[in-house]
Design goal:
alpha/beta; Rossmann fold; eight-stranded mixed β-sheet; two-stranded antiparallel sheet; globular
């Protein structure tokens, strides 16, 4: 499938304590083909029940996916942004929910727009790594007086412990389309479920010559 092709052998860079993949789906390197986004959307939708009344995504890498999912299933889309809006005094719009975030590649604050008391929220993200982004989103949902219906991601970096963290700290089981890991020597990602590490593929090529 296309997602496996995108991630199997994608380059990685070091971002602080972790290795981060750079690829077509999350970074538009190269430009994101519509068929890749369509596949990611459809496979993620197949995981969920979408019984809530809103979707929530983080804007940096999740917005493209969130918009595609929202259009397909017909739910309103709420977005967590990296900056607040300075609304005028007396505005009828609710101020954003502000939470701290400490993720694989960013530490700071998120400002969640569009989630209100009583909402039932499906949280969607492109990647689960350390769980930092999802932790912030789930705290924001509850801070708003809303409820988490389900959490769905396309890619899970299995070795970074994010799934266990979200289950331990929030009691929520994350569902993912595929799992990957990163070879720290080759600095390439590979698909855990059915993928072959880049280093092993290279050894096989050398032996066959």
């Amino acid at each position: 499938m296309l997602l496996e092709q995108v991630y199997d052998g994608a380059p990685a860079i070091r971002t602080g304590r972790h290795l981060t993949t750079v690829n077509e789906f999350t970074d538009q390197q190269p430009a994101l083909r519509p068929e890749v986004l369509t596949e990611a959307r459809d496979r993620l939708i197949a995981l969920g029940s979408f019984n809530g009344n809103k979707l929530l995504v983080e804007e940096d890498k999740g917005a493209l996916l969130g918009a595609a999912v929202a259009l397909a299933i017909g739910l309103p889309l709420a977005v967590a942004r990296w900056y607040p809006y300075q609304l005028p005094t007396g505005s009828s719009q609710s101020p954003p929910i502000e939470v701290e975030i400490d993720s694989e590649y960013f530490s700071g604050r998120l400002f969640v727009n569009g989630i209100g008391r009583g909402d039932r929220v499906t949280v969607v993200d492109d990647t689960l790594s350390t769980g930092g982004t999802l932790d912030a989103l789930l705290r924001a949902v509850r801070q708003a007086g809303a409820f988490v219906e389900e959490v769905l991601v396309v890619v899970e970096k299995a070795a970074n412990g994010g799934r266990d963290r979200i289950l331990r700290e929030h009691g929520v089981e994350v569902r993912s389309v595929l799992r990957i890991d990163v070879d720290p020597v080759a600095m390439r990602s590979y698909v855990v479920d059915g993928g072959t590490p880049v280093a092993l593929r290279q050894e096989t090529v050398v032996e066959s010559r």
